[in-house]
């Protein structure tokens, strides 16, 4: 956007006489703007400051073996017969169930119903888990998960529990099953649903919880994100995004299942419980969770809890993505040895667990931190920036009534481009970090270098905006149309900058 000839001489005189003095105020103004955005980002909240985990769980022995008064079969003791059945639910719907039974076992067997986590939903899941247990004389049932109770935005855990209870009732009617010894196996998210089924099923005999969140997903998810970021060596400012993303998503009434607290159901469980974790499960509070469950069980007068930790296993009891057999031998011994297994076995055994920080309750964000409000702010900022930029460009077209922006046009358009690039780089960075975290990989160049690149872009964008604003202040527009176009584009850019600051892009002494 070239200046008019009559402005050129004045500009040269100003730059010659006051150039040195103007650079200092410009830099100071820019630094002040950076500090304002950084301070606002820190204040906007909610904050994130998890406390060190001081409570410890010390295993009584390194051996995870379950001890009981009877001899229990080893894995592979029986051949396994597999069959698929249709089971009718209370509402008339039918689901498929894979039934696995030990071949050649005399008499009736204990049985267990598998509850799905987030990653599985058909009767074909848990094939190895269920086969191992069936080979030790336990009848296993893996049902489909009714997806009308389950979506990304809404999940009806109570409704899902009724489905699994119906499968347990059907299982008790099978000739190979001893009806008084039917229990539930819940893994990951399924461990949130299993306590509901056990409490509402008066005939439930036992409960197995594997990689149990033991608390609302809102808290567990924030804990997991924190643990992953610490493992990656992420910069401290990035942690502030954890509560803002999770709480912001829930604030609009979506993902309300993330607030479901299994604690009130734990407090009503009276059957024996076995919990199992891998010591390298970063996604679960492997110390805090069992402590909370044990305290809840005491409300029901229940001390029948057996806790096992498996060295180097991660979420779902896997090592290098391979399911480990020892946990399922122990689970089998727990079930086959009841009731003596829970009384004679060490209450806590296996490898030493470590949880560095506690899972904490997330605060509710301010109105502008909700998902809908943040999306509206971002969309408005982009729309105004684009509209204002088009108005400015249109004002320079030959067939239009030509406008002059007196040296403000180019820096303001440059700041708009840089702000947009900063947002694109930030989103790409978040996706890259998420991929690294979910794959348990580390890459310092991406984690540290990526955020530095985003911050540099953000600082440059703010510098050009401050530079444009200072020129505008020194050289008021000659027409209302030019001034209006600048106001539109500046308003949009300010919205985008404050939205960036909310996610910790600008440094602050308060982080």
Automatic annotation (TrEMBL):
Q: InterPro entries from the xrefs?
A: AB_hydrolase_Est10 (IPR053145), AB_hydrolase_fold (IPR029058), Peptidase_S9_cat (IPR001375)
User: What biological processes does GO assign it?
Assistant: proteolysis
Domain Peptidase S9 prolyl oligopeptidase catalytic: start-end pairs: 162-336
Q: Name one Pfam family in it.
A: Peptidase_S9
* A single GO molecular function term of this UniProt record: carboxylic ester hydrolase activity
Q: Which residue ranges does UniProt annotate as crossing the membrane?
A: none
Tell me the domain of life: Bacteria
Instruction: Indicate what this protein is called per its UniProt record.
Output: Prolyl oligopeptidase family serine peptidase
Q: Which organism is it from?
A: Trueperella pecoris
